[in-house]
Amino acid sequence: MRAAILVEDLFDERELIYPFYRLKEMGFRVDLVGPEVKTYRSKLGLEVKADVSAEPELAEAYDVIWIPGGYAPDRLRRSKKIVEMVRRAVERGKIVAAVCHAPWVLISAGVVKGRRVTGFHSIWDDLRNAGANLVEEEATVDGNIITGTGPDAMPEMMRLLMELMGSSSIPK
């Protein structure tokens, strides 16, 4: 199983580190995918290097795409390759998880209309305006899209991800 965590400058450290290790714990090979293969810096200065440069075709290579929040989603959504990769992943039934401000990327990919989603409260108007059915819940799932309000929502998001994968426990 393969997972991609999207990365851009000013990502929220917690929203990258937590899923990175949880996905590894579940048996995933995890790649950091950015607009380019380069070093990206978090809001607090943590540096990580993208393993892979985003390409729309990569949607086929991953079972899960996780999009961290922070200020990175505003930058990620400017990358046509990232947006197209996310759109294709959703269309092909891959699991796409977006936390905090990351549903902005889902909006840009055109995949929230008519779907139950949540996100950080400051983007709720954007979600409504994009035609999403906003739910004021910590985390929610609609089909293959999992969304959460922020770092505190990630344990529930991970539980939902395991449920979608057909497992309620971490593989041994």
Explain this structure.
It contains six helices and eleven strands. The protein is of the alpha/beta class and 172 residues long. It has a single domain, classed as Rossmann fold (3-Layer(aba) Sandwich), CATH 3.40.50.880. The mean pLDDT is 96.
Question: How would you summarize what this structure contains?
Answer:
The chain has 172 residues and is α/β, with parallel strands linked by helices.
CATH fold topology: Rossmann fold
Q: Main sheet? A: 7 strands, mixed
Please write the CATH class name.
Alpha Beta
Coarse structural class: alpha/beta
Distance between the termini: 14 Å
Provide the residue-averaged pLDDT.
Answer: 96
Our count of helices gives 6
What amount of the residues lies in strands?
15-25%
Q: Helicity level, as a percent range?
A: 25-40%
- What is the molecular shape? globular
Structural domains: how many: 1
Instruction: Give the radius of gyration.
Output: 14 Å
Order of helices and strands: EHEEEEEHHEHEHEEEH
- By oligomeric state, this entry counts as single chain
**Secondary structure tally: strands:** 11
> Low-confidence stretches at least 5 residues in length (pLDDT < 50)?
none
**What is the CATH homologous superfamily assignment?**
Class I glutamine amidotransferase (GATase) domain
Sheet with the most strands: spatial strand order: 5-2-1-6-7-11-10
Looking at the overall shape, the CATH architecture is: 3-Layer(aba) Sandwich
Family: Belongs to the peptidase C56 family.
Keywords: Glutamine amidotransferase, Transferase
Organism: Candidatus Korarchaeum cryptofilum
GO molecular function, one term: transferase activity
